[in-house]
Amino acid sequence: MATIVNTTEEEPMLAVVRSTAQLAWADAGPEVADPEVARLCAEAQQHLLAARWLDMATLMLASADLLLLSPSAPDKDLECTLTVTCNLVTKAGSEDEALEIAKLICAKLTHHPADKTTLRIKVLFSLYNLLPSLSGKALVYRKALELAATAGKAAADCVVPTFKNIDAFVAYWGIGKPEQRELFLAVTRILKDHKGMTKDYFKFLNKYLATFDGSGDDADAIGAAKEEAAAAIVEFVKSSDLYQCDLLDMPAVAQLEKDDKYQPVYELLKIFLTQRLESYLAFQTANSTLLQGYGLVHEECITKMRLMSLLDLSGHCSGEIPYSAITKALEINDDEVEYWIVKAISSKILDCKVDQLNQLVIVSRHTVKVFGMPQWQSLRSKLGVWRGNIANAINTIQANKVTEDGGQGMQGLMIR
Asked: What is the 8-class DSSP label of residue 236?
């Protein structure tokens, strides 16, 4: 957060008005410029004395474009001007007035966003720290994201480090589902083309899509999420690191099943999460152009589908998978089985031992492709059994201890 240190005798707000006014009227000549500068300074003085901070903000921002759009204007002058303006929110008589001032500043900073974007974002973060209201903070942060989404990598790098705190921000601000939806959507637009952030992009697509429950007001808004729902499916299919997702359970994704444009994409997701390689190959034969249109590479899809098929086998076996079942499901030769087992282990989706003598793969753990309500219920049941076993073990230990203590007491009595 910037701190204002007054190095002149003039009030910083009046100094800003004077300097920007002189810049604005610089080409008009002294006979025209001097009266106009004096008029604006007098107006600023009146706002200052009357504590009309919203009017002061409007006046200070009136000529800010001259600094924002001028390539020759020093960044330090612009930052100083905007920092002084931002400090007006600390003088406001109410949170509502501070919020209105913040909205004025945001509107100015997000106008013509291609110029000095990084500096604009820096000023917005300073404004965020100065604002007293949580709703105001949420607004300013979202504006910073929207600004970063329109610029290049340098601007995006300013905001990406804050994404790890998004969940904490949402809880702190106390914002509702519509505001969360806008926030997550803004994040996805920044991460979409940001190198090395594929997992985070998919994560925030999921967060965005999860804000739709398909009821109430969502029933009207959910239609706008089709493009992002399709993008999430494509990212899942394309990724070599993702083997589990809950997209099928989301209303925003389920709507694609009956959509003429996106129905094939939804079908592809169902194949990857509920079927095996054979189904994918049949789908690819009928939809090769569609896959290419989404940037999906057939060979990469086969690789992932083989691993997904192996997970499907693991989920339906009793802990032991015959080599013959693997060769059939993955459509490979006998001598390739161990290669795919090693690949699954290295991808951290499978823990197992290979019994070469009996041609078996003994599975101890595998990633579940879909972790929905049935999986939660199964986990709850297993935890219940585990708690029962622990309770029985504790009771047995306590009973044995009582028996031992009783025996020792009798022995002591006999000695006496």
From this structure: H
Residue that has been written with the tokens 């901070």 in this structure: 53
CB 316 within 8 A of CB 299: no
* Phi, psi (deg, nearest 5) at residue 72: -90, -10
Can you say whether residue 99 is alpha, beta or left, with left for phi > 0 and alpha for psi between -120 and 50 degrees?
alpha
Position 22 pLDDT exceeds 90? no
Which pLDDT score, from 0 to 100, does residue 114 have? Answer: 73
Q: What is the DSSP letter of 372?
A: S
Which one is predicted more confidently, 225 or 384? Answer: 225
Coil vs helix vs strand at 3:
coil
SS3 label, residue 192? coil
Where would I find the H helices in 192-336? 198-209, 218-221, 226-238, 251-254, 263-274, 277-293, 298-316, 323-330
What is the spatial distance between Cα 318 and Cα 151, in angstroms, rounded to a whole number? 53
> Which two three-digit tokens encode residue 213?
């429950």
Q: How open is the CA angle 277-278-282, to the nearest 5 degrees?
A: 115
CATH number for 319-366 (one of 3.40.50.620, 1.20.120.140, 3.40.470.10, 1.10.10.10): it is 1.10.10.10
Which is nearest to 169 in space by CA: 201, 144, 137?
137
CA–CA dist 48, 41 (Å, integer): 10
Classify the C-alpha dihedral 271-272-276-279 as positive or negative. positive
The C-alpha atoms of residue 234 and residue 253 are separated, in whole angstroms, by 12
- Sorted by where each begins, the domain ranges of the chain are 1-151, 319-366
pLDDT tens-digit profile of 115-136? 788 889 999 999 999 999 999 9
